[in-house]
Design brief:
heterodimer; A: six-stranded mixed beta sheet; B: alpha+beta; 2 domains; two-stranded antiparallel ribbon; 11 helices
């Protein structure tokens, strides 16, 4: 499955939010490489640095020390406009609490993000409908998030993340607000996108059940990334 | 799409905001209309008089707020100046009109109804004067005091019959009333003075040459051509309370800007997470500021629509309650307010857009 294309990479990344307190790093000398066609699970408790890890990977913030690469290019070399375009068309996000726009229908939530990538009109609607059908949510097109179940919201959120053909999917606790059954069905959708569409999915979670679907599982604890015991991944660095 | 749906998602807030904006818009339209009404009412008389030249007492420049007395025997002198076609005297004095148990002050204008020059610009109802015991009142004054045609009013000890109601003679703070010159002299108690002469120049004659001849022949006077005299009266009018109306309209615009800016800022704070998410998801650079401007425009145009729809009936009601409030509306005023509203909406967006810059995409991550 893994075709060897580098998607996201961290080299010796350390992140301080307050550089005056050197002993309190959100990430500490983290090295990591994610390739196309793999699903990587980052396991860690709350406050372990998972969100920092994901946001640096997505180019939303820079490391204090070390280097971060997206699609084989140092994120410092990207202009803010280029990073915006990357996030719109090559990176998809799934958030713990779905973060759908309350005032927009499911379809409009997806179309909004397609608009960010420059896809509009009938082409956008047709593509969105295809995803809705694949995810079994075609009946939700005109429904507002407030009228959806948690599972439905998360399916819409996954559709939103995938619809622009993103090569990198970053999922922050995607099962955190879902019942077991619903959570695993979402992970399966993401797993399918890795297998069928050669995407790279990086999930940060404390839900160990996801490890059954992951190609690699890594542990993040107090900002330090480690290979999970008994895992066959190549680990950090 | 997002801007529209976000606004309509909170209907009560939208309705309240629209009402607030509509009130500000109505206030601005009202003040501009009153300004226009006073302008038209103050100048209606001067512009309607059929005069090429106005002759007033020396140092008097207008008829709005200047006392001018000229001797009546100078009329023959003026009439004898070559190039002058006609000379019509008018006498303007303040007079108190009493009707039943109420009284009001008018700008009592005595003129010669035989040629009509110096009389009311337009008789909206009734007829021109035919006798000395008749009067034409401004229609808003008559409405205010509930005076009708054929009613008898009193000025000093004289009883006069209302034969006509004029329009274009409401100066807001005071209104014109018209009587014969003979009656005006009788009320004043002096028959040998008038306020101004309205001069018609023979066709083909140079007005400037006639003015020079008048100055040479008649002492202690000021002579103005029609254009200059109208300008003098405009200048006098604008030095009164009118700038205050503009000031209040500007304050209304500032209040509108503040309300709109506050509403948009609250909206940004309420939707902070949405904006952070959109930033994280790669919204283009101008997209989010564009949303704020779009919301601002939607709100302002809603306020404009409601304000304009309710403004005209409101004016009719106000005129019923207070007839001396003369509001003259025009499409230019409405367009001016619309243009002002667009500018206000853009200015109101500046603060909320600056707030956007302090929202970070990282806020989309982690638990709510």
């Amino acid at each position: 499955m893994n075709d060897g294309t580098n998607i996201a990479e961290l080299k010796g990344v350390t992140k301080f939010y307050d550089t005056r307190i050197k002993g309190n790093a959100a990430l500490n000398d983290v090295s990591f490489l994610a390739k196309a066609g793999e699903m990587v699970l980052i396991l860690g408790p709350s406050g372990s640095g998972k969100s920092t890890f994901l946001t640096i990977l997505a180019g939303l913030q820079s490391p204090t020390e070390g280097e971060a690469y997206l699609f084989d290019r140092n994120i410092r070399e990207y202009s803010s406009h280029e990073l915006q375009q990357l996030r719109a068309s090559r990176i998809g996000f799934i958030f713990q609490t779905f973060h759908l726009m309350d005032s927009l229908s499911a379809m409009d939530n997806v179309l909004l993000v397609m608009g960010f990538a420059g896809v509009h009109g009938k082409a956008a609607r047709d593509r969105a409908l295809k995803y809705f059908e694949n995810f079994g949510i075609q009946h939700l097109g005109d429904v507002l998030p407030r009228s959806m179940s948690q599972g439905e919201k998360q399916r819409v959120a996954v559709a939103r993340a995938l619809v622009n053909g993103a090569e990198l999917i970053i999922a922050d606790e995607p099962t955190g607000s879902l019942a077991t059954q619903q959570g695993m069905s979402i992970v399966r959708l993401l797993h399918d996108s890795v297998r069928k569409e050669n995407r790279c999915v990086i999930i940060a979670s404390h839900d160990e059940r996801i490890s059954a679907y992951a190609d690699r599982v890594l542990y993040l604890h107090d900002g330090i990334l480690r290979i999970s015991p008994g895992n066959n991944g190549d680990g950090p660095g | 799409m997002y801007a529209l749906k976000t606004i309509f998602d909170q209907r009560l807030k939208f309705i309240m905001t629209t009402c607030g904006m509509a009130l500000c818009i109505m206030l601005m339209l009202f003040l501009l209309s009153v300004y226009r009404g006073v302008y038209v009412g103050s100048l209606g008389y001067v512009t309607s008089c059929n005069a090429d030249l106005w002759i007033l007492q020396r140092n008097a420049t207008n008829i709005l707020r200047t006392t001018s007395f000229i001797r009546t025997d100078q009329r023959e002198l003026l009439q004898s100046i070559p190039g002058i076609s006609s000379v019509s005297p008018v006498l303007i004095i303040n007079g108190t009109v009493r009707f039943k148990d109420r009284s009001g002050t008018v700008y009592l204008t005595g003129f010669n109804p035989a040629n009509g020059n110096g009389g009311p610009p337009k008789i909206a109802e009734g007829n021109m004067l035919t006798a000395n015991d008749q009067i034409i009142l401004d229609q808003s004054f008559a409405a205010k005091y509930n005076i009708h045609i054929n009613d008898r009013i009193r000025i000093k000890d004289d009883s006069l019959t209302v034969v006509g109601l004029s329009s274009g003679t409401n100066m807001f703070v005071i209104q014109y009333a018209f009587i014969t010159l003979a009656k005006a002299h009788s009320l004043l108690g002096f028959a040998n003075i008038i306020s101004a002469y309205l001069v018609k120049v023979r066709e083909g004659e140079s007005k400037q040459a006639i003015i020079s001849r008048i100055y040479a022949a008649v002492p202690d006077i000021n002579v103005f051509d029609r254009t200059t005299f109208i300008k003098n009266n405009i200048k006098e009018m604008e030095s009164g309370i009118l700038p205050l109306l503009y000031m209040i309209a500007i304050i209304g615009a500032i209040v509108l800007t503040a309300i709109l800016s506050l509403i948009l800022s609250i909206n940004v704070l309420e939707r902070r997470k949405d904006f952070a998410i959109m930033k994280a998801l790669g919204s283009p650079k101008g997209f989010l500021p564009g949303l704020i401007i779009e919301q601002s425009m939607i709100l302002i145009f809603s306020g404009l629509a409601v304000g304009i729809i309710f403004f005209f009936p409101l004016i009719r009601v106000l005129e019923k309650i207070s007839p001396e409030v003369s509001a003259v509306s025009s499409s230019t005023q409405v367009l001016t307010v619309c243009l002002g509203a667009v500018i206000i909406s853009l200015i109101s967006s500046i603060g909320p857009i600056r707030k956007l810059n302090r929202i970070y995409p990282l806020e989309a991550f982690g638990k709510e």
